[in-house]
Amino acid sequence: MKQTALTDLHLLARRPLYSGRAWAALAAAAAVLALLPLLNLAFPPGHALHVSAYAVALLGKFMCYAMAALALDLVWGYAGILSLGHGLFFALGGYAHGMYLMRAIGRDGVYQSDLPDFMVFLDWKAYPWYWSFTEHFWYAMLLVVLVPGLLAFVFGYFAFRSRIKGVYFSIITQALTFAAMLLFFRNDTGFGGNNGFTDFKRILGFDITAPGTRAALYWITLAALAGALVLARAVTQSKLGRVLTAVRDSESRLRFIGYDPLGFKLFVWTLSAVLCGVAGALYVPQVGIINPSEMSTETSIEMVIWVATGGRGTLVGPIIGAGAVNGLKTWFTSVLPEFWLYALGLIFVLVTLFLPTGIVGLARRLAVRFQERKA
Amino acid sequence: MRIAAIAHFLRRFLLGWLLAVPLLSAPAPAAGVDPALLAPLAGDDTDAKLRAIAALGQLPDPGAAAVLQALGNDRLYATADGRVLVGDGARAIDPATGAAADLPADAGAIGINNRLRRAIEAALAGSRLYSADARERLAAARRLQQAGDPARLPMLEKALAVEKHDEVRGALEIAVANLELKSADPAVRRHAVELLGRTGNPAFRSTLAALAQQADGPQAEPDAEVREAAAQALRQIDRHLATIEWAGNLFYGISLGSVLLLAALGLAITFGLMGVINMAHGELLMIGAYVTYVAQTLFRAWLPGWMDWYVLAALPLAFVVTALVGMALERTVIRWLYGRPLETLLATWGISLMLMQGVRTLFGAQNVEVGNPSWMSGGITVLDGLVLTYNRLVIIGFALFVVFLVWALLNHTRLGLFVRAITQNRRMADCVGVPTGRVDMLAFGLGSGIAGLAGVALSQLGNVGPDLGRAYIVDSFMVVVLGGVGQLAGTVIAALGLGGVNKFLEPYAGAVMAKITILALIVLFVQKRPQGLFAPRGRSVE
Amino acid sequence: MKRRLALKQLTAVSLLAMSGWMPQVHAAGDTIKVGILHSLSGTMAISETSLKDVALMAIEEINANGGVLGKKLEPVVVDPASNWPLFAEKSRQLLSQDKVAVVFGCWTSVSRKSVLPVFKELNGLLFYPVQYEGEELEKNVFYTGAAPNQQAIPAVEYLMSEDGGGAKRFVLLGTDYVYPRTTNKILRAFLHSKGVKDSDIDEVYTPFGHSDYQTIVANIKKFATGGKTAVVSTINGDSNVPFYKELGNAGLKATDVPVVAFSVGEEELRGVDTKPLVGHLAAWNYFESIKNPVNQDFIKKWKAYAQAKNLPNANTVVTNDPMEATYIGIHMWKQAVEQAKSTEVDKVIASMGGQKFDAPDGYTIEMDKTNHHLHKPVYIGEIRADGQFNVVWKSKGPIRAQPWSPYIPGNESKQGL
User: Fold this and answer.
1) What is the number of CB-based contacts under 8 A between chain B and chain C?
2) Is C370 on the interface with B (CB under 8 A)?
3) C57 to each of C31, C52, C145, C224, C245, how far by Cα in Å?
4) Which of A3, A64, A324, C90 is least enclosed, having the fewest CB within 10 Å?
5) Exposed e or buried b for every residue in C251-281, given b needs 16+ CB within 10 A?
6) How far is CA C400 from CA A112, B384, C393, C395, in A?
7) Are B329 and B448 spatial neighbours (Cβ–Cβ below 8 Å)?
8) B364 touches chain A (CB under 8 A)
9) Of the candidates B365, B385, B390, which has its C-beta nearest C49's C-beta?
10) What are phi and psi of C392, to 5 degrees?
């Protein structure tokens, strides 16, 4: 019997990422999403099939949020590490890309100087050392990956080594993002303070507000989201993923068996941070501004609710959750602005009390019940 | 014997009565103030007004002082026909005659600005030097220490000659010395400089610094000995300033620590007991502050005479209201999430959003005004330069009182016994018959109630608005994480420590860097001791 | 029961999410849409909610008088929730989805800067009613608030004058963001030009939401021992309250060290006990206590509106400078539309220059012909115990704005658009 179990385990580790039907569904969803910018570009406004630029920009933003939610689900849903500071990695990626975009403004800013406007009003004469090379796109992209990754690695190493877990860890991540927010709010830190980075003009030579550029950014975001989903799925379906699930379920027991969770946790934590950073980097050119309030504790906690609403531990769930909650937010703040916070608070409470498995979990349960009815 | 006693008593009573009569039948305000002096006050010429104020200050007539006081309090009116009246509600007094007069409807209050206010204070100080109350004389003498006009010297010397009270004498001598700095005689100047140096009062720093300079234009001091004495005096003052600064930082640190302590205490109790991080804790602080606002409004409407004591009434009210809110929270949301602390965190965050918006709907998004009662306004000056503000002193005392109450509750009541038992080992406590469900609810109520009390304190310090809780939530967490939940001492030490370190760092690094450094230090500290300073002992679950 | 509840939730959530990005169909009626972009929640709600209400009041007033070009105005109110990216999103929504003719909104410079690219891209029209740091001049924006030369510089001049206390040393205390930073830069250059040395200027910045001012007040006291000192406060909004409380309790009276604030108006004083603050100063282009018939009328209308609409704390509402600026902006826009006989943005922009309006501040205010700013009078007021201001100084008449401050090097070549 033990032999079978072992070979079962071995077989399970090699199972495919998604079933055929799941692949089909995902491909269909991706195709629909990819179609929208075409509809925006191809048809003029007023046409029945036209999709407004507003909608395209909004969906692009939602997809970035979805990617961040996905990254968070990797650590929370699969490794049981609740991070209340993932907004920090998101924002750091955004700032890294923003540095390049600020450089790309060139002399077209308000003060027609080589330096960004906020450095001019601070009376700085040259870029600080940490801005060097950021005029090169590839370097900025390197920073997008390295800065959140390195920070996550160092922080995670010390935290996991000291075996900080559970609520304490969450509070510490909150402290980290709060401290970073305070740091970035300082104008002296050299990242624009409360104004942040804004007023972008160009990206890689293309006008950043042109519909074509917007569509391109949208498709790149879609591709990144899809890629992140596949990557995350691969990680969670592999043997590594199994260990992570064990970490989530009972870390002490795992330790007693002989695994050292440190390496696994660190890996998935860093990967999650990098994915979040990439999401942030894609967010900034589509939204047009990055500001330290992206690092606020409120933003990070909202990310958690996207994951919870969609269904933690499912990878697809957070994507749906991010879309649903943000869509709701957009609708509420237009139609019933005074009630938006009640709705959001209620979502938090109801999801944790009644929908612990989120929308996807609910759908699965319904599907199972439907199957049972049929059988 | 008894008759003698009664007679003795009667005699003293009659004597007292006879002596009091002249005082009781104090004469009506003396022959009024010269209208020519009053006229410029109604006009537009600022210089003429200043001259009039100075002149009124020289008059011994209490009517003149009354005019100046009214002017300072926006109660001096100018009528259309150029008269000046001292107003008091609907009635008015004509200072020229001392008689009552009607306040015409078209009379406008004479407006003043800071410059006039300063002149009025100086003028009144002059007349108050002869007041019967020693405290008033002392305050007047202190005010006049800042005067720079040598013409006042004879008046001060006259007052000094008749002054019997030691403290007032000292203050007057300093005021005289300040003016003697301009004397022609170097020996007099040197004596003045030495006297001022000995006071250590930083208010004299600028004048002494100017004297200590080399030949420096109009402030030049020709006599080398005087310059030397001035430099010496400056050093004394600077030393004193350094002491004041150090003592100040200590006080600020303790007061910040006491605020953190109050804010975090409730959280520490609920976290220690149930492992629940209550993200709505900040909003409980906010509710406590709003209850104080409501109490103030009620007192204003129904008990205006007792306005000064609305804070004391707000305390039990805030405790009860927030405790009820906390218990409701526990019953409806938290108990279903028992054993799932991370979900509790999220659910309570949702509650906090709803509470914030609820307060916005009820009270408006704007801040509401909560005033300090008079016994919490102002401060006490110690060390001749450091002001310990009353509101912070009261809050420090209050924080210690609350800690004492909680300690007494935890260690000397049955509920406290149950709470400690559950904190150490919930299952075992359950087994021996502790009603864990009810104790959970009561302990949560207690923690929330303490948050309400903290909210009352916070309302006296800063803004009261829907965002009040947000400002303190991260700090409360830091205190709890740092202090650990094993003992009350952990929270106390962590709070005071954080407050102290913050305030000692602030002068060097600025407010933001100090805060960031502290957060970084906490993160590093928790790596070393993940359970905080005072970890719970026993076989606690992870 | 749980299942049904969850089902309901699921349906509701997905429906609502879908509706979020469905293009909204609006009846193309006989109305002109006007966008109102002010935070109704979050940290800025404290200041911005009243601007939304004043805008709605002005729109109601205009509609009662027949509307604009025969059509009624329809307000479209959105809540960007003090979130800067949301400001950009909402402005895009207002311009491209709701197709508003004009937007009245923003408060912080960040919010303005985040919506600017959208307005430039979609050729929208924004009226910005708050005093700010200048250094900006955009074709699509009309600035109805004060530029530094209409607020900050006259205030400092007053402090240096005899009446203001003859200050020789200055503490420039502000919250750490662009408005205080730029204003202090301008003020420093101005003070240099008046002979004040750098050793007599102390520039201090605090983070947003800072509430513990003990150390700062102690430092002000220490700084004041060096000579007659005044404090220029660019602290943001309600952070002024703990500062004033600490100041009052520490015994620093206005006669010793006067504090002039640029972000404290009647609205902020509603939330604070003003007794210890008597004598401290503020500089604006309008105070509620100014006595003239237009202002009395304005205040009466506002109080009546607040009562009628049951606004929270309706019996203690006040008017302040940004409210007056909003009111002026809406009326001037109406006049410009009527003059241009169209709501088309370019035509309205062309006819805005030179518009005149009898404002509650007592003057006939004019929109400059080239620089998109109003000519505004300057008032300096002292705080009274009842939360109103006593005007202690006023400029001789409206002052023309200099959005490009001459005290910042490099601005000499910039003029109007």
Assistant:
1) 162
2) no
3) 17, 9, 19, 46, 34
4) A3
5) bbbbbbbbbbbbbbbbbbbbbbbbebbbbbb
6) 25, 49, 18, 12
7) yes
8) no
9) B365
10) -110, -10
Q: Taking a C-beta distance cutoff of 8 angstroms, is the pair A365, C7 a contact?
A: no
Q: Which of residues 198-257 of C touch B (CB under 8 A)?
A: 205-207, 209-212, 214-216, 218-219, 221-222, 225-227, 238-239, 241-242, 245-246, 248-251, 254-255
List all residues of chain B from 393 to 422 with a beta carbon under 8 Å from chain C: none
Give the best-scoring range by mean pLDDT among A10-19, A163-172, B52-61, B488-497: B488-497
Helix axes C321-340, C293-308, angle to 10 degrees: 100
Query: In 3-state terms, chain B is what percent helix, strand and coil (to 5)?
Result: 70, 5, 25
Angle between helical axes of B205-212 and B224-274 (0-180°, round to 10): 140
- Report yes or no: C85 and C360 within 8 Å, Cβ to Cβ: no
Which residues are within 8 A (CB) of B372 and not within 5 positions of it... i.e. 6 or more apart?
Answer: B391, B460, C245, C249, C273
Beta carbons of A68 and A301 less than 8 angstroms apart:
no
Which residues 94-133 in chain B show a CB within 8 A of chain C? 111, 113-115, 117-118, 121
Q: pTM for the complete prediction?
A: 0.83
Residue B464 has pLDDT above 50, yes or no: yes
C162 touches chain B (CB under 8 A): yes
Q: Which residues of C91-127 are buried (b: 16+ CB within 10 A; e: fewer)?
A: bbbbbbbbebbbbbbbbbbbbbbbbbbbbebbebbbb
Residues of B in contact with C43 (CB under 8 A): 467
B16, pLDDT greater than 80: no
Question: How far apart are the C-alpha atoms of B528 and C294, rounded to whole Å?
Answer: 68
Tokens 């968070």, located at residue: A72
> Does any CB of chain A come closer than 8 Å to the CB of residue C46?
no
Task: Tell me the pLDDT tens digit for each residue of A326-344.
Answer: 998 888 877 777 788 888 8
What single-letter DSSP state applies at residue C103? E
Q: Which of C50, C215, C255 sits opposite B118 (nearest CB)?
A: C255
Q: Is the CB of residue C33 less than 8 Å away from at least one CB of chain A?
A: no
Cα→Cα distances C47→A335, B407, C108, C241, Å: 21, 43, 10, 14
**What is the chain B residue with the closest CA to A180?**
B516
**Segment A33-74, tens digit of pLDDT:** 888 888 888 877 777 777 777 888 889 999 999 999 999 999
> Which member of B523, B527, B542 has the closest CB to residue A176?
B523
pLDDT band at B32 (very low <50, low <70, confident <90, very high): low
Residues of B in contact with C216 (CB under 8 A): 511
8 Å CB contact between C284 and C145? no
Burial string for A74-84 (b: 16+ CB within 10 Å, else e) reads: bbbbbbbbbbb
Structure ipTM: 0.85
State yes or no: pLDDT of C128 exceeds 90: yes
Determine whether C47 is exposed, middle or buried from the number of CB atoms within 10 Å of its CB (0-12, 13-18, 19+): buried
Q: Tell me the residues of chain C between 50 and 89 that have a Cβ less than 8 Å away from chain B.
A: 50
CB contact under 8 Å between A354 and C2, yes or no, is yes
- Amino acid identity, residue B489? A
Residue C129: HSE in the Cβ half-sphere, 13 Å Cα cutoff: 28
Pick from C104, B135, B263, C114: nearest CA to A284: C114
Per-residue pLDDT for B128 more than 80? no
* Nearest residue to C223 (alpha-carbon basis) of C257, C269, C189: C257
Record: contact B118-C267, CB cut-off 8 A: no
Please count the CA atoms within 13 angstroms of the CA of B391 that sit on its side-chain side.
25
Sheet containing strand C169-175, edge to edge, reads C201-206, C169-175, C229-234, C259-261, C281-284, C379-383, C389-394
* Nearest Cβ partner for A328 among C16, C86, C205: C16
What percent of chain B is modeled with pLDDT above 90? 23
